[in-house]
Amino acid sequence: MPRLSPFIVLGLVAVTGLVLSGCGGASPAAADRPQIELLNVSYDPTRELWKDLNATFRPIYERESGSRLQIKQSHGASGSQARAVIDGLDADVVTLALWSDTDALRKKGLIKEGWEDRLPHRSLAYTSTIVFVVRKGNPKQVRDWPDLVKPGVLVITPNPKTSGNGKLAFLAAWGSVVLNGGDEAAAREYITKLFRNVPVLDTGARGATTSFAQRGLGDVHLTWENEAHLEVAESKGGLEIVYPSLSIRAEPHIAVVDSVVDRKGTRSAAEAYLKFLYTNEGQEIIAKHHYRPIEQSVLEKHQDQFPNLRLFPITDIVSNWDEAQGKFFAEGGVFDLIYKPQANGSSRD
Amino acid sequence: MGTAARQRNPLPGFGLGLGITVTYLSLLLILPLGACLLRASSLTPSAFWAAVWTERAQAAYRLTFGTSAIAAAVNVLLGLLVAWVLVRYRFPGRAVLDALVDLPFALPTAVAGLVYSGLLVPSGWYGQWLSPLGVPGAYTRFAIVVVLVFVGFPFVVRTVQPVLETLERDMEEAAELLGASRWQTFARVVLPSLFSSLITGFSLAFARGLGEYGSVVFVSGNMPFKTEIAPVLIVSRLEEFAYAEATAIALVLVAGSVLALAAVNWLERRSQRYAG
Predict the structure, then answer these.
(1) Rounded CA gap, A107 and B257, in Å?
(2) What is residue A18's predicted lDDT score, i.e. its pLDDT?
(3) Residue A4 above 50 pLDDT?
(4) Which of A203, A210, A331 sits opposite B222 (nearest CB)?
């Protein structure tokens, strides 16, 4: 496939630059020490997490290396962030929501083969999951996945086609059937009923949060565990979290973008940055923001904060993300069939 | 419009001016469009067809073109009224109102979408009155038309306003003296002179509606086959890293707007011949 025209890349870079310049305050350049600049391209709800991590990591690195460090963040829907990097956004590290988004960079040759094995725990610094948020007192009595398809229960979840949150919620729902003894037909039936109860398909996680929390739409919101905590805290008692009996183990992988760091000469800083996440300090910050720390000791320390539910990896229901994408979310996949009207015409198209 | 006073071009260097114009338009329009074509041309004709002509895509095109046309038509009526009021009457606050007309240009459309969805949900300011009447509020086609009317609003006002300002009142007085009723004066004298600017306003508002994404995604609900507009389909395909397929859908939209604009142009020229 041909690469994008340089003009589109230029435009993208310019736009991203504008966005970034809004976030990172310009600090006057102190001349003598070498200045290193890292760009971390991440997904939507991790803003607060990375801000905290960056502020802690920067002085540590500057003390150890003697150079000045500036870390910029970029946030957006995971898939479009991956595309921006493919189209030329100079990300030193990517910390995206889905394995398939990171692996898309490998497919385009930006990240080397075997990237998953280069950092501890298969390049995972934390995991997360999908939980339920309900209105105060749980008036519709939503306790577990089967409750979501009851008549009259309105479910808010973003569009699985465009959102990582949406994909994970879909897969968790699918798993709740097939991992509890249901067959594929039962899973299809369940998922069809579930999406009949979804009144709105927001394109991204934040849009769905707005629909549920601000607009007062729906009875239950399927969302990231960390987003659920934010949402509940902001509602000041109007919302509460419900943990289902099982859910998917969400794995937002982290990776150094080889082609970028080798060109910019920022490899050592980028690697130190990601390794910092595995230190006790990094893991504590991760736990503080309601992401599940990968190090068992830190996770156990915060056990009361992370209720124990059965978290299944995606490989329990399909062989890998590529298969999940093709089977469920691609054009003509399971998700599209839910909405096919009456399904009388063949899909000749 | 006002061509008589322009015998001598005050800008020096016709050649330079033209050169810059052509370069500018190439960089801004033709090259990106070319890149678009190139992308889509990596598909075989059958793959192209499969990408752009699914049942779901057809539903999305119908929705996108239909809602844009309805919204543009509403804007023609309301825009004409607003332009008329702003030009013909003097009242306190006129200048403020006049400035407000441009607000949809300035406001990020995502903000407009969020505001309207907040207003139209059953608990919102408008929704609480609409839903008892049985009028569906947010997350329906009605909501899409409402935001498209909002984003397209300034176009008709701003194209009609200057023409209305140059319209001589004498003509209307003459019509009245010759025995025309007020309705006849409006329909036979005023409207024909405004017709071409109304058409221009309509086509601008219509084209604006076709490409609108930011505001619509927040109020439409994006339900496939019901309230999913074509630009959302493009985003879904991009999410699968299916660049070529996404570009193919975009090309259909571009082709559709070019056709619509051409048709409008033809209508406009016909009307000018009729009016002149």
Answers:
(1) 36
(2) 46
(3) no
(4) A203
A126, A288 in Cβ contact below 8 A?
Answer: no
pLDDT digits (tens, 9 = 90+) for A77-126: 888 899 999 989 999 999 999 999 999 999 999 999 999 999 999 999 99
Quick check: B242 contacting A, CB < 8 Å?
yes
Q: Which of B212, B210, B216 is nearest to B114 (CA)?
A: B216
**Helix, strand, or coil here: A312?**
strand
Are B42 and A217 in contact (CB < 8 Å)? no
pLDDT tens-place string over residues A33-59: 789 999 999 998 899 999 999 999 999
H or E stretch at A130: strand A126-135
Q: Nearest CB to B54: which of A201, A325, A349?
A: A349
Please name every residue paired with A41 in a beta bridge, in sequence order, or none if there are none. A74, A94
List, for residues B52-89, the tens digit of each pLDDT value.
Answer: 998 889 999 999 999 999 999 999 999 999 999 999 89
Residue A40 counted as domain residue? yes
Whether residue A64 lies inside any domain: the answer is: yes
Contact criterion met (CB below 8 Å) for A257 and A86 = no
Closest CA to B141 of B114, B115, B118, B120: B120
- State the residue range of the domain holding A53: 6-24+33-124+251-277
Number of Cβ pairs < 8 A linking chain A and chain B: 93
- pLDDT category at A26 given cuts 50, 70, 90 is very low
Domains of chain B, CATH where assigned? 42-275 (1.10.3720.10)
Instruction: State the DSSP string of B179-206.
Output: T--HHHIIIIIIHHHHHHHHHHHHHHHH
Quote the mean pLDDT of chain B: 87
Residues A327 and A199 in one domain: yes
DSSP string, B160-180: HHHHHHHS-HHHHHHHHHTT-
A5: chain B residues, CB-CB within 8 Å: 31-32, 34-35, 38
Structural domain total, chain A? 2
- B123 inside 8 A of chain A by CB: yes
Q: Tell me the pTM.
A: 0.80
State the burial class of residue B263 (Cβ atoms within 10 Å of its Cβ: 0-12, 13-18, 19+): exposed
Which residues of A are less than 8 Å from B26 in CB distance? Answer: none
